[in-house]
What we know:
By secondary structure, the chain is an alpha+beta fold. The chain has helices at about 70-75, 80-95, 100-105, and strands at about 5, 10, 15, 25-30, 35, 45, 50, 55-60, 65-70.
Amino acid sequence: LLKETVNGIERIEEWLPVSEFMGKYEVSSFGRVKSLCCRRPPKFLKQYLVKGYWTVGLSKKGKVFHRTVHRLVALTFLKCELVITAFLAIAVVALLFDDPIHFFDLIFLD
């Protein structure tokens, strides 16, 4: 468990599974990535720079996929906020057009 204090605010590191590699890897709110498979305790993955971005190699079915760490953190931790933001944006558009029925059409489109 890692703690960090920034501008007098203490933050605790949170871990969530990487959705694309469910059950194999987790990413932390501090940008660390660990492997959960076949290791006790979990192994922290080495990060390397590619075009200025910290990157890790994640494997699935014998193939290695390179993913940037900032993108893993964003997709994992900001997913809920992005869905809410998109929902609110659609609601605003529907209100601007004064068409509540159209609002529901936008939400439930496939």
